[in-house]
């Protein structure tokens, strides 16, 4: 019964919305044919109804918010579980055409059901009460047979049949609207593509924030643990080293707290980050290396060739991502190898050099150059000799994602007893 009531209400709403168009068509017919009176001739009423439907279609084609209004009504009154009406205005002609088809169907069926709902219940009431009311029998109802004979008692059954037919018509028309709602008010292929792009952008933003948190906080925790462990082992024998380690721990905690506040502030404010949050660049690389050295890890930095001159003039995005890659490479070395010597190398591979690592020269165009970042440390025995592999744990996967976002590549693996991370980033201006 609830579903029948909802469908009936939806159809009555359609009939109410059609009334202005019907009246406009009626006035137009009266002006065009002065002697006509549509309200006295059912045929002319049907003609006015037919003239009103094109006006309904034109309204939905010209007014995009029609889809918003109809979708809101369909969400409440249409009972099909698979219905997914789009609440946004129809912003394409494909969406407008589908909305126009729905609007015409809704108002057309609604007008017919509304007219039947006004006419059939009173007629059914008369038929049901006809055998019991002498006053009604005196009137000429045009009912079959003699109003004083046995045929009179068929009138109540006919009245009940009329009501049942009306309920069946409401149910069928409502079912048709329920079935058409997903197809006509649901998302178009363009809507689905836009929704997929929005979901992809949201997931990409979440991934960027996760990488920022992992790289900054993960490296800080690894460095602090290493520094605290080194300080504990020489607490009595080397107070100066302990003081340096504690100062490095303080500086690491302060810097990481600022980065963490920046990321969490974006989440608290409900922003949808289109780019990674601001962070340190290669200009702060010396501080990162000094913090790592304070934990007793020998770190050597090599900037070969023209790279030494351009590191301070790299695009901000590239410089920031390169800093994070070095940071995560150092964190991986600390986590998996401990206090072993780490070599960090920054170099250019491109037309300014005679050849890249594979011996091939650059193409001669400046924007073909690549910044090559290498982080290398002695491999642990359990690493064993194996072929180079891409990706790995969360940290290496994050490095690969950062490199891929800039059009570069990342490789990590054991080479001749040493663990080597190699990342190549194009120097061209990438968004």
From TrEMBL:
Q: Which residues form the Signal transduction histidine kinase subgroup 3 dimerisation and phosphoacceptor domain?
A: 206-271
Residue ranges of the TM segments: 46-66, 105-130, 150-177
Q: What top-level class of enzyme does the UniProt entry assign?
A: transferase
The alphabetical list of record keywords is:
ATP-binding, Kinase, Membrane, Nucleotide-binding, Phosphoprotein, Transferase, Transmembrane, Transmembrane helix, Two-component regulatory system
Q: Does Phosphoprotein appear among the keywords?
A: yes
The segment annotated Disordered runs over 347-400
Q: Does the keyword Cell cycle apply?
A: no
Q: Which domain of life is it from?
A: Bacteria
Cleaved signal peptide residues: none
GO MF terms, alphabetically ordered: kinase activity
- Quote the EC number: 2.7.13.3
Q: Give the reactions, separated by semicolons, that this protein catalyses.
A: ATP + protein L-histidine = ADP + protein N-phospho-L-histidine
Which named protein is this?
histidine kinase
